[in-house]
Amino acid sequence: MQTKILMMLSAVFLALLGLATSYWPDKVLGMHGTVPDNATLLLIQMMGALYLGFAILNWTARGVLIGGIYARPLALGNLLHFAMVAVMLIKAAIKFGAVPLATSAVVFSAFAIWFGVVLFTSPVRAPQSQG
Fold this sequence. Notes:
- By secondary structure, the chain is mainly alpha-helical.
- The protein has one domain (4-119).
- The chain has 5 helices and no strands.
- The protein has helices at 4-23, 25-31, 38-60, 72-96, 99-119.
- Helix 1 (4-23) runs antiparallel to helix 3 (38-60) and helix 4 packs antiparallel against helix 5 (99-119).
- The radius of gyration is 16 Å and the shape is elongated.
- It starts with a helix and ends in a 12-residue tail after the last helix.
């Protein structure tokens, strides 16, 4: 399975989340119906820094052979992150009936499933051009 597209999409997605939560945490919280206070704003900005870190990790690893035993820590870290956040978002979306949370849950679930497939299948090296 080609993983370059997965790594690029996840990197861009996480970078956008990281920038939004780092620079506009009050807007992000308000969009999800949370009244921002100083401690929550700081935690959301810290989360943004983590997302930016994951984004650069995935972007720089976009050409790496991933799957099976290859780059297993990279695939495991991404799978754990996306799966755990998906479960939390699903739980919150059900509890609060919030459409933005449900939409986010779908995206995180899709990435979790994709990283799970990558983790448990053998990688296929991309064909290299002759020339």
